[in-house]
Amino acid sequence: MIASVLCVVGLAAVVLAPAKTAFAGDQLTVVSWGGALQAAQRKAFFEPFTKATGIKITEDEYNGEAGKIRAMVDSKTVSWDVVVAGSGSSMQLCAEGIIETIDWNKLGLDRAKFMSGDKHDCGVPTEVTASIIAYDKDKLPNGPKTIADLFDMQKFPGKRGLWKFPMLNLEWALIADGVAVKDVYKVLRTPEGVDRAFRKLDTIKKDVVWWTSGAQPPQLLADGQVVMTAAYNGRIYDANKNSGKHFEIMWDAAQLTFNLWAIPKGSPRRDDAYKFIAFAASPQAQADLTRYIPYGPDHKDAMALVDPAILPNLPNAPDHMANALEWDAVFWADKGDDLRQRFAAWLAK
Amino acid sequence: MVTMAAQIAGRFDSVPLRAQLQRVERRRKLKAFTLVLPLLLFILIAFAFPITRMMFNAVHDDTLLALMPRTMAALSGWDGKDLPDENAYAALAEDLKQAWAQRTTGAIGQRMNYQLSGVGSEVTSSARKASTLSGGPYKATMIEINPIWGQRDIWSLLKRGSSAYTAYYLLRSIDYQYDSDSKIVASPPDQSIFRDAFLRTLGISVGVTVATLLLGFPVAYLLATLPPRISNPLMIMVVLPFWTSVLVRTTAWVVLLQQHGLVNDALIALHIISQPAELIFNRLGTVVAMTHIQLPFTLLPIYSVMKTISPSHVRAARSLGAGPFYAFWKVYFPQTLSGIAAGCLLTFILCLGYYITPALVGGPSDQMIAYFIAYYTNEQLNWGMASALGFILLIATLVLYYVFNKLVGVDRIKMG
């Protein structure tokens, strides 16, 4: 009885406690996307940070949707201090004033040192990831070499796996149709460019298996459902490492995007959040992350610290950058709604 | 003693019997009400209030009104024929300056971008440039800063924003939009998706409901008529999947039905087909997986009604000379109708809200409306649009429920 009363009192204290309790200073809630990425972040960022500062990190997971953060900030019940956000959702949350504008002086890092530092006001770039085309070397010894091969039904008959969203697909369609990588978004801003991309996608439409979650492409390849598929490089690497598969990544026209650390507005532990981000975005920590997951560092000084054996697996390794496309979150923030609707209509036709 | 008895008698005599009865009755009612009060409050707080709030979201949007007050005021006298006058441009420049200082350009841009795709980032960049302006003439300067301010449609959009209530979200949910004169026109065909999605949702839901009924009715009959020794293990087979996660069952169908899955491999090994059949990532896969998940929901109400039907009815009909089918159809079947109605209604309404299953086993043209609602809520953060779609789905469900009530009668539904 007494124990349960104490329990209730304790619970009430936790719920009703003001933001500044005696131990609020030594813990921080960091939220990532779970899976292999969060496991890698735990080893490279969370544990070393706790060791260095004594600040305990409580982890949580979400699937990158902006809705939950917005609901938290709107209702003034922010329990997440630092979140990992994708390029697109960070753009949106920033526009709505839901996440903090980063004060780079307070952070103590040089914004110019980041590959994508100038693109976002509300986030600190962390790891670079790539969307690529993957195939199974056991079933297809002579795999695709360029993005044009994705659309070449003669040379590579069979089904292709693609993401069930217009992003990635419209860009690849234009590159395969002969648009230079640097002009992709310029062309896609015009109605003619959009028509051209859809026309190119029409040529393979009946041979596409559309996937919705990142876990599906390795599965589609393993089951022989598709001869090649769009996928995230981390997942393919993971399947090779942990399931003994021989999947191959084609890096031509890889689309690079990056994740960001963001701070929801109204977090009671803002100072510690900045401390954590400064630690996790430092060159050494970013280079450490590559030992656990093949995502490249966004900090320009970190590349030199990466183990040369790991380098070929990273999206932004120098060899891969020749024809890589930096995915444009600004374009998709502008045109995404429209193009998604058109894409949905096109799919249903 | 005597005086006490007299007092008591007196007290009862002074209050008429009817009033006493009423008092007792009132107290009883109050007690009953206190018992249901927690549930009533819960329903109000967790259900009625949020839904009303959601409906409000679908028609209310004061973003522009709150963030661009000067422009809204300046446009009140604009006739919408030509570009507005210098005043409006001056107000726009002022509003953009203020928005830039308060970092609200993103919200303004996003709100305008809903209706005019592509202007979002232009608004932000205009605000950045406008923040350095010191004086007029504003009209020429603003158009020079960004040509969008020389387009009439952007001003119509702003003028529409001067009311806190908008039909835009509801219109767009049924594939209509405003043109540059603020007239309501049908969306272009390559942007029209919602009407189809609603019809598809209804179609799939009807299909799955019919399939569960056809499969569930005979099984329910078996379960209700067999001796418990046999029917209990059968019952377990029916409810076991019921206790398994929907995600697991959906994924299991992928394993079964895919190109080199168990079903295709078996059919090829038996030489029934020579090429793997397309069993998944299309409408067939969606209906199969959803039918499997929904089967217990339809079957259990039918079963529990059948349990209450006495076997002597059919026996009596047979002894009076009815054939086996006639006896079943005229005597037994009508008694199961209430269970059928309950099971089918339950399944149908649950199907309307499906989205994870069609996303995993459906094809490109199997997107149901719940998917779009989730997408606008979580990813686009366009809560007006999510509310409008939800509102229309709710209204459609209520209309169907009304029709159902007229045809079958809700009071005839029995769960057992």
UniProtKB/TrEMBL annotation, chain A:
One Pfam family, please name it: SBP_bac_8
Q: Entry's CDD domains? A: PBP2_polyamine_RpCGA009
> DNA damage: is it a keyword of this entry?
no
InterPro entries from the UniProt entry: SBP
Keywords, sorted A to Z: Periplasm, Signal
Signal sequence span is 1-24
* The keyword RNA-binding belongs to this UniProt entry's keyword annotation: no
Its recorded name reads: Spermidine/putrescine ABC transporter substrate-binding protein
Species the sequence originates in: Bradyrhizobium icense
The beginning of the lineage is: Bacteria, Pseudomonadati, Pseudomonadota, Alphaproteobacteria, Hyphomicrobiales
UniProtKB/TrEMBL annotation, chain B:
Q: Name one GO biological process term.
A: transmembrane transport
Query: Which spans are transmembrane here?
Result: 32-51, 197-222, 234-256, 340-361, 381-404
Q: Which residues form the ABC transmembrane type-1 domain?
A: 198-404
Localization recorded for this chain is: Cell membrane
Question: What are the entry keywords?
Answer: Cell membrane, Membrane, Transmembrane, Transmembrane helix, Transport
Q: What is its main location?
A: membrane
GO CC annotation: plasma membrane
Write down the superkingdom of origin.
Bacteria
* Topology in the lipid bilayer: Multi-pass membrane protein
| Family named by the database record | Belongs to the binding-protein-dependent transport system permease family. CysTW subfamily.
Protein's name according to its UniProt entry = ABC transporter permease
Q: What is the lineage of its organism?
A: Bacteria, Pseudomonadati, Pseudomonadota, Alphaproteobacteria, Hyphomicrobiales
